[in-house]
Amino acid sequence: MLYLLLILFFLVYFFIKKVDKLLVFITTWLFIGTCIFIVSWFFVFKDHDYYVINLYILPVFVFITFFEFIKRHFERFFNSTVIKIIFLFFLLFNIYYTKGIMYERYNEYPKRSPNYVEFVNAVEYLKSLEIGQDDKIIVHFDCSPNYCLYSLKMQGWTDYNGRMDSAKISEYISHGAKYLILCQKEDIDNAKFRSFIRNKIGQFETVSIYRLDNLIPDKYPLGYHLVLSCDAEKLSPNSNNLLTQPNNIKLPDRVQLYKEQTHSGTNCILLDEKFQYGFTYLMNVLPGDHYYVSVWQHPLKDSIGGVIVIEDTIGNPFRIEGRAISKKDSSGWELMDLFFKVPDDYFSSVVNIYVWNANKTPLLVDDFKIMKTDVK
Q1: Would you give the DSSP letter of residue 349?
Q2: Distance of alpha carbon 38 from alpha carbon 52, whole angstroms
Q3: What is the pTM of this model?
Q4: DSSP β-bridge partners for residue 158
Q5: For 311-326, what is each residue's pLDDT tens digit?
Q6: Nearest-CA neighbor of 169 among 196, 204, 208, 136?
Q7: Which of 69, 263, 318, 337 sits CB 3.0–4.6 Å from 296 for a disulfide?
Q8: What is the pLDDT of residues 225-248, one digit of tens each?
Q9: CATH topology (fold) of 225-373
Q10: What is the arrangement of strands in the sheet containing 319-322, beginning at the earlier edge strand?
Q11: Strands (E) located in 288-333
Q12: From CA 70, how far away is CA 91, in angstroms rounded?
């Protein structure tokens, strides 16, 4: 299309003596004005190509000037049915091409940003948290003016131009912001967000959601339901194996109970050099399932704490380890938790979940929990 415009432009001036004088006068001054416009606004074209819209008047007059010349001097050619059919196909091709560009702008281009992909995947999960459309949100990792807000059909603020800091967040809260959305793949500045990420209500893949008011949810994370839990209080008859709630599922570990310092109830389990593994559970899964696993731990002596492990059962092509601490209580117990997604191409129907004391120094663990969301 650009080559065609260039050829027609030169042909207009090659036949300048036969071209309509008024049209060539307008086209010439439009060309001069276009050059001045491009030089004056040169740097904005890097990111803001819509400024080019103002310049489309030049191609319009190039076409008008050229075809007016053809109509006056080559009328038979101008009225040719074959030429009209060719021009029609040329027009339809341009319409088809433009449709493809528009589709790419609205559908394909955002997918090139990993943060946008994570956010779009989490849209249904955010809805499951019952965040109302009238609730205003802050989306930190969105550097566009409103892409994520548009996807959610919600109002709020983004990190457009990278200007978000603690003062800005406080200002947004004063204007009604109730939720803060962060992407864990980002390098988060803790000094900037420390006072705003104390009330986490949910997570989906790498997208974390925090309430900015003082309302603490009864259940964390929201949008997930309980699969099983184990508080080390119930043992299977005539054995030392733990039973879970609900359904009294028997966990395969033989454990050493510890009663002197528990997180809840009268029992917890001690992991050390002899017993490194605890709360082992083989769980049936489907590709694309999302889960949350948590356990309370209390390091003893020089222990650096344990790790939650999720892996397949036949050789570790799939393995996730997590030791993130999301809460601490006054007695020294720490909540270690992990969100994970079963890969879409997962080859098995089972994953193995357990707590591992990798460094073998004494570690207490209690109140193991697995939760699941039905959002894909």
Answers
A1: S
A2: 9
A3: 0.70
A4: 139
A5: 998 877 889 998 888 8
A6: 196
A7: 263
A8: 999 999 999 998 877 889 999 989
A9: Jelly Rolls (2.60.120)
A10: 277-284, 350-356, 307-311, 319-322
A11: 290-299, 307-311, 319-322, 325-328
A12: 18
The tokens for 9 are: 């432009």
**CB 194 within 8 Å of CB 220:** no
Q: State the CB neighbour count (10 A cutoff) for residue 282.
A: 13
Measured CA to CA, the distance from residue 273 to residue 275 in angstroms comes to 6
Q: Left, alpha or beta for 2 (phi > 0: left; psi -120 to 50: alpha)?
A: alpha
What phi and psi, each to the nearest 5 degrees, are found at residue 294? -145, 155
Residue-wise pLDDT tens digits, 108-155 = 766 666 667 777 788 888 888 888 888 999 998 777 788 888 888 889
Within its chain, how far is the Cα of 180 from the centroid? 14
DSSP 137-167: EEETT--SSSHHHHHHT--EEE-GGG---HH
**Confidence class for position 188, pLDDT limits 50, 70, 90:** low
Q: Domain limits of the chain?
A: 2-79, 114-211, 225-373
